[in-house]
Amino acid sequence: MVSLTEFSIDMSSRFSCGVARDTISSALTWFFWLLSKNPEAMNKIRQEVNKKMPRFDPADLDKLVYLHGAVCETLRLYPPVPFNHKSPAKPDVLPSGHKVDENWKIVISMYALGRMKSVWGDDAEDFRPERWISYSGRLKQEPSYKFLAFNAGPRACLGKKLTFLQMKTVAAEIIRNYDIKVVEGHKTEPVPSVLFRMQHGLKVNITKI
């Protein structure tokens, strides 16, 4: 038995440091937990990896469309930074009609936004990587103001591409080589913090394929 939180941190820390390492390890932990609850998605990712990337090559990561969709679904449902806040530079009026002053702080819940049926549809709370894939099998690009995991507009996260690179690299290599099952009875509880991580990590049994 191993704590996947610790394993994810070890893997991601090879590429990053500081806050980026913590957010990526948090996202990977929720990612593998979601896959443990959706074994069909796990099998689809493994088949995709074995077919489109028989040997690891970073250039082939863009071919892993279903894996990319699964990562996006994880970030939508369990954003590593669950809250953000904005302050207007001067008095303004929001699209909703609400007036805001320059000394106000507007708190945005990324967690709530990712689960709003008015934004994502009636299946907003479901883990469905297919929502990120078009009928032609290509990735669907959602507007940044809808998918706010990396902020939006001119203040979008500069590390977005690197984040996807790291998460897909770690996920592909683990899924290719191991079966992962969450320890029976293990409780997954989020920590009420600026970083959306699991209270006790994710305890799993790992079997070499």
From TrEMBL:
Record-level Gene Ontology MF annotations: heme binding; iron ion binding; monooxygenase activity; oxidoreductase activity, acting on paired donors, with incorporation or reduction of molecular oxygen
Listed GO biological process terms: lipid metabolic process
Binding site for heme: 157
Sorted UniProt keywords: Heme, Iron, Metal-binding, Monooxygenase, Oxidoreductase
Transcription regulation found in the keyword field: no
Signal peptide limits: none
Cofactor annotation: heme
Similarity comment text for this entry: Belongs to the cytochrome P450 family.
Protein name: Cytochrome P450 family protein
Organism (species): Arabidopsis lyrata subsp. lyrata
